[in-house]
Amino acid sequence: MKFNGQDIYQVAVIGLGMTGRSCASYLLKQEIIPLLVDTRVGLDKGALKQDFPQCEIVLANLDDIDFSAYQLLVVSPGIAIKQAAFEKARAQGCIIAGDIELFANSVDAPVVAITGSNGKTTVTSLLEAMANASGIKAVAAGNIGVPVLDVVADKSIELFILELSSFQLETTDNLRLKAATVLNISDDHMDRYSDLNDYAQAKQRIYRHCEMPIANRQDSLTHLIDARGQSFGLDCPANNNEFGLKDGYLMQGQQPLLAVDDMAMVGQHNQLNALAAIALGKQVGLSLDAMVSTLRVFTGLAHRCQLIPSSDGIVWLNDSKATNVGATLAALDGLQTHQGNIVLIAGGDAKGGDLSPLTQSFEQQISELIVMGKDAALFSAIRSDAHHVESMQAAVKLANTFVNPGDIVLLSPACASIDMFVNYMERGQQFMDAVGRVNEH
């Protein structure tokens, strides 16, 4: 197999979740039989062997494995690359890469990519819908849940739209992009990065081989050092390289594109998402009419400020995808004009993040705060009258006692879900199920 100009024969795949299994399947199609490794010693080795009978499978601590015979280690994004086992492997001449780098060595069609602390799944899905409305066969892949190596061989695809996490970008060096954006940077994954600048630098790797970088001009951490590229923001654009807002319209320069009131998505954060998607779409030749038409009907995604049908006059919003502080702030910013009470359900695993940016919103917007999960006490440090509960059902039942018709109950945890739930989707579904039970009474 050719990889970055080298002939590669000896490969190990580290991490056997969805991405790792996708990498293993891809490598087997390239006639490479990889070593499969996972540090979770409790995995069902028999089931793995059934799926990959040709491969040797090792379940062990990375420090206990000798990688000296391997040319390439393909590391899944959930595994930190800053650890002794990988430093030792590099010193022995081993290449450390991820699935996106394998994709970069195989892809023929144009590629655009989106990263950021918040909004990247929405922008990726929105751009895919815009491309398909323009008559271009596009596929969204990457961190959105479709492994890139599962779709790279499909020659009918005319445009790849990738959602990329900072973890994926850490192991990506040669991805060539028609356009890319860093939507925003806020405190996240501080259990993996030394500080916010370290995290931002991982995100900015997306611009390395990018023809048109597109930054959020109101977030300096998304910018390139040089002045290349285009930008978007909530202010008035100064020229045609800027997308923004003026007099209630989405704009490119001085050209009105769409009244924000005609968008199916609500909230200023979604206006930013729309501007980013249009800027990206223009770089790959999408029809402006098709993009505008898509914005009129695209309502957003599940678990992202999702309105739950209710018969009680209370507005129940499922924003379970808000796994960091920036996402919760964006949700609250979108509700600033609300006149009634807002009850917030938050908490989970804060991933070492700083919750203090929530202080002002908690004081000025939130009538009651309900918290749960591993880091519930961190929220109480900001808001001393926070109510502690042990389950989502209890949170919803308690929230229901605080509200009247016209009030809002917002699930926007500002935390990861893995301390109590399988993932943010299960968390959101439990919220919706609990709301349904409350409405039955």
Report on this structure:
There is one protein chain. This protein is an alpha/beta fold and 441 residues long. The chain folds into three domains: 2-97, NAD(P)-binding Rossmann-like Domain (Rossmann fold, 3-Layer(aba) Sandwich); 103-297, UDP-N-acetylmuramoyl-L-alanine:D-glutamate ligase; 306-440, Mur ligase, C-terminal domain (Protein-Tyrosine Phosphatase, Chain A, Alpha-Beta Complex), CATH 3.90.190. Helix content is 31%, strand content 21%. The chain contains 14 helices and 22 strands. The strands form four sheets. Strands 9-10-8-11-12-13-14-15-16 form a nine-stranded mixed sheet, with helices on one face. Strands 17-18-22-19-20-21 form a six-stranded mixed sheet, sandwiched between helices. Helix 3 links the parallel strand 6 and strand 7. The mean pLDDT is 94.
